[in-house]
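Tutorial handout. Part one gives the primary structure; part two gives the three-dimensional structure as tokens.
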Amino acid sequence: MAFAAYNEGDKNTNMNFIRPGDSPNEVPISRTHPNGTYWSKSEAKSWVPFLFMGTCLLYCARVTLPICASAMAEQYEWDKKQSGVVLGSFFWGYCLTQILGGYISDRLGGAKILMLSTCAWGLVVILTPVIVHQTSAPIVLLTASRFLMGLLQGVFYPSLTSLFSIKVRESDRAFTSSSVCTGSQVGTLLLGAVGSVLLHRYGWESVFYFSGLPSLLWGVCMWKYLLKGQDQIISLESLGNGLVNSKNSKVPWKKLFQSTAVWAVIVAHICQAGTFFCLLSWMPTFFHDLFPDSKGWVFNVVPWAVAIPFSLFGGFLTDHLIKLGFDTAKVRKIMTVFAMGFSSIFIKLLSYSGNYYQAVIFLSANLGLQTFNHSGVSVNVQDLAPSCAGSLFGIMNTGGALCGVAFVYLAGYLIETSESWPSVFNFISIVNTFGLSFFVFFGQATRIDI
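Part two.
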């Protein structure tokens, strides 16, 4: 695994920049976190697998309620509308903390925010069965707990981006990001398999305990072993100093939003994230409508399993090309062509799939290619603005989530009015093509936050 190596001789590589005309002794102050030193090889070997586990647990906790929703709805006599309210409440909380989570992480350190948020959402998941059984209105408190979990999980990826932008070298970011983000597929598969067994044998409460307890343990282990020797407590004084009085690390919002490269990465991410959310929301319905006798576990498992090696290969290939001397911006664009361009071809082919297994192959290829986004647009924000990557990613992810909901509703309208799935797939392809074109023409990888 190609982790970032660190040595004293190149400690400040890519951290300080000399502008033309500057004296060598007058190096401008870099806009980086105070702890802005790269991970050593041994540190990376500890952090990356641990963060992979964190991403895995993130998705285990996230899909816990969807797996248990049918059983809980039957027990408490909820209709489809009530179940939809409970499930949808996560999204609204998730959107609200993206930008704030990234901003705080850029100021105080992404690792601390990851630790605190994971402990908090783990506790929420563990307490959910207790709360539901102790109240006469379980749907109200369950909706509130789901909303709260959305708030807490909303800071995860912006914090992760902030952490990587400071601790991982440019030439190692793609594989590191891909390795960690592969935990999303593994977590979905893990809870889908184990959760179904627990639900059948021990009831829905066991699924919550199975996903909540490891999350809480993960946060405790980070505090004890990985953050040992650092100030793990975020006091009100440090929070105030970090968010109000840190003038030297003020986010250059005006400069960022005047850059076409920033808008390129924002537009591309919003298009990719929005269509991805739309696709995943409607795929079960697609298979149910066109292949009613098909085995559900196949299209729920196979595409995610295929995506794992695709993601790792994309990250490895990207870092390898950059280390060989290829231009970083061009490599990021090539990966995005695979993630948004070639993947759209397989979306179009879904319209012409003649049988169930052919459709599964096309969907698997699409999801696999989309993981190249971890090595393209998603990591490009760290190239452009490492000092405020968390904040910028929070903006991107908020836009992507909001567009995802809008696209889901629009797809439903297209299906209802045209009674045609190709209309939905054409829409997804058009949006991806627009975002890809914008990024290819205007995307860069040169740092602009200094």
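Part three, for discussion. Residues 13 and 76 are 59 Å apart (CA to CA). The first helix runs from residue 41 to 62.
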